[in-house]
Write the structure tokens for this entry.
Amino acid sequence: MNKWFETVAVAERRAKRFLPKTVYGMLVGGTEAGVTTRDNLTAFDELGVLPVTAGQSATRSMETTIMGQPSSMPVMISPTGVQAVHPGAEVAVAAGAAARGIPMGLSSFASKPIEQVVEANGQTFFQIYWAGDKDSMVARLERAKAAGAVGIILTLDWSFDTARDWGSPDIPQKMNLRVFARHFHEGVVRPRWALEWTLTGGFPTLGVPNYPVGDDPVPGFFDAYVDWMQTSPPTWADVAWLREQWDGHFMVKGIYRVDEAKRAVDAGVTAISVSNHGGNNLDGAPAPIRVLPAIADAVSDDVEVLLDGGIRRGSDVVKALAFGAKAVLIGRAYLWGLAVNGQAGVENVLDVLRQGIDSHLLGLGKASIDELGPDDILVPPGFFVDP
């Protein structure tokens, strides 16, 4: 099969045919009825553009900086958990992002150690949850700093709601004979995925090597998840305390309201991401693009505002920038590319987004992403929400 794809939608269709049903289901799921997950995508489709006919710029610039890091376009890798879609996992993603000149976000629930990921991409931001006691959180920050992480992403957009109308996939924490027998049929119907893992020496495990402190053993994904789930949620004073433990760029991911965006500014963060965790927070929340303008208007002079959720095309990036985002984060989009073709697939996704951004800059008569604004976008009545 030709592994090159010209759109992210094509990559997802190929990934669906390639991945075991359980793995694919793990990636696409949102909470409850999936209303928010769908709106993350369809909201962008409701927005139109106003192309020009002549006088376009012969050259277009999309370079920017994201939390102090130069980026070849206003896109960065959003941290996602254990990436069982390909043996290269986060290292392949980091290398693909580095090859295309964009920063990497690494989850604390990743399957590859931070040291390996930073080696593959020197522009790696380490993502942390408010999980465990304060000493353990500081220890994770210290390890990230020693490894060379350039910044921190504190993810707070999660409600531990595991209800899904289509059912939750049966995800094993580790592979043994009993688990292998239970999932054997998935490998039979998806033999290329099974062969790919077999050739690398085994099947994926859900250990999280960036979560333990000191010499503690690497916990399984669900062990770490339970630790996180049982930790009392942070206050804004806690966020301010954690921010004080890191001397450098610090993002809070999951902002959805103007008042909380202002609280994040007061806590001293340098960036926020308008995000609903890919539809895995509370179902019924609107797509991030619907609340972005109000938040950007309120705090973009004080912090960098990014958007995370539903980015599948370069046009989506352009629309987010037109309404105040400095850049966007992508999650599922690069996972489809990773599943289809490893590092090269990640690079393919980034090339697709770059081409789409460039095409829209050309069609809108812009020489730079800095020239984009609300007047370039057609907005239906009642589209935006004032949070």
About this structure: The chain has 14 helices and twelve strands. The mean pLDDT is 93. The longest strand covers residues 249-255.
